[in-house]
Amino acid sequence: MTAISDCTQGVKPSKGADGCPSCLPKAFDKVKCTKSVIKECAAPAACAAGEKPKRDGCCLSCKVQKAPKCTVEQKDTCKASIDSLGECAADADKKSVFDVDTCCVTCKRAPRPDPTKKCTKADFETCIDTAPECAAKEKPVREKGQCCVSCRRPAREAPLREVGKCGAIGVCATDETPTRVKDESGAFACPSCKRAKAVCSAACSDGQLCVRKKKSEEANNTEGECRGKKAKKLRMLAKSAVNKAFLKGASADEIKATLQEIVDRFCDNEEHADQCEKFQATLTDGMVVKKVTSKNDEIEVQVEVPEEVVVSRRLTSRRLADDAGSLLDASMADSDATGGDISVTSEEVVNKALDDGSAVAGNSQSFLTYSSSALVVCGAMVPILGAGLF
Questions:
Q1: Would you say residue 110 lies in a domain?
Q2: Does position 117 have pLDDT exceeding 60, yes or no?
Q3: DSSP three-state, residue 248
Q4: How far does CA 258 lie from the centroid of its chain?
């Protein structure tokens, strides 16, 4: 059995009869396209109507102008209407199913034979494999009785290390919208830019993070609010040479992008709906990776996780077992989300802060260790950041 090679330019991976991909797509060459190289790119002209940006080396062919995104109200309306929609026709394509004006699907998938039956791992894998790829502007929603979300995110098809490399791309300009960039093969590629960080009107205390407000999540703005935080220390270990190299050279932004994708993959599974509905947006948008230290074959990562609710005055935030930090722990412990070959130690290093910003005294720590046995599939050991291709 041999390892799977990288796809050549213009070739999209296909799935063989054994379920393995024909090749691994290469999403972003961070070694070649450094921040200094990207800064040297000439400012791209605005994309024409219907034109999509492409990468010419490390530079973009055009820039997509800022456009309205789906609002929180549209998302809420869509969620509330899903159950009442009719079933999609068997030959319905993605363009006819998702309405860009209402930001919602116009029909739902046929129900399972027994919608009340608990979904197995095989049920989830079948569901996500057969789900249509999410359209532009579309966010996956949950359908009652299904084992996965309504559409498959393009990043799910790529090795996690390639999604992680997207952390190295630049921040969107004030007049620019992040847009997926694809080559002729249609394989996954990093978006044209990433959203700017949240900005709070007043400086947050040492015990808080500036997190994007819910109403500004899809509004192309950076309005934020200060929330309490919890600090964690993660130790990440890879076994394959290619992923050891990625982890060793990864920046804080790249590790953050990797952790975000792990959480998103965990939340694709309907089994985790309750926890993800509460904390996914807060965690993925607000987490901060402060430091990445390489030690032999593992890396040590300092992560700050925001609270879901703003800490009110004169009230210390209450420690909850079900919070954004626990969602991160659960995601890292799930072999389906990480790829099946990962050893992670999560250590809570500080308590939540009081409303005046002073850290709670003490040295209370919790230690959680997750170990998943290595899987040997598709001609090679499944790497920590190389699974989830389909």
A1: yes
A2: yes
A3: helix
A4: 7
Question: Which helix (H) or strand (E) covers residue 160, if one does?
Answer: helix 160-165
Helix/strand/coil for 84: helix
Q: Can you tell me the distance from the alpha carbon of 276 to that of 268, in angstroms, rounded to the nearest whole number?
A: 9
CA distance 329 to 275: 12
Lowest-pLDDT range of 69-73, 121-125, 168-172: 69-73
Q: Name the average pLDDT for the chain.
A: 75
Whole-number Å distance between alpha carbons of 212 and 218: 10
Q: Which residues of 135-161 are buried (b: 16+ CB within 10 A; e: fewer)?
A: eebbbbbbbebbbbbbbbbbbbbbbbb
Query: Do the domain assignments include residue 143?
Result: yes
Residues in the chain: 390
Rounded distance between C-alpha atoms, residue 274 and residue 357, angstroms:
30
209 found inside a domain: no
On whether the CB atoms of residues 357 and 210 are closer than 8 A, the answer is: no
Which residue, among 98, 106, 196, 85, has the nearest Cα to 138 in the 3D structure?
A: 98
Question: Residues 242-260: pLDDT tens digits?
Answer: 888 888 888 999 999 999 9
Output the CA–CA distances (angstroms, integers) from residue 141 to 84, 104, 159, 337, 351, in the order listed. 14, 9, 23, 18, 34
pLDDT for 352 beyond 60: no
pLDDT per residue as tens digits for the range 297-338: 789 999 999 986 544 434 344 444 468 889 999 998 888 888
- pLDDT reported for residue 252: 93
**228 CB contacts (<8 Å, ≥6 apart)?**
207, 208, 209, 306, 307, 310, 311, 317, 352, 353
Q: Token pair 């394989």 is at which residue? A: 187
Domain count, the chain: 1
Name residues whose C-beta falls within 8 Å of residue 208's C-beta, 6 or more positions apart in sequence.
226, 227, 228, 229, 311, 353, 357
Grouping H, G, I as helix, E, B as strand and the rest as coil, residue 3 is coil
DSSP character for 63? B
CA atoms within 13 A on the CB side of 354: 6
The whole model's pTM is what? 0.74
HSE toward the beta carbon, residue 313, CA cutoff 13 A: 0
CA 254/CA 34 separation, integer angstroms: 13
Return the number of other C-beta atoms located less than 10 Å from residue 209's C-beta: 24
| Host domain of residue 92 | 72-155
| 257 occurs within a structural domain | no
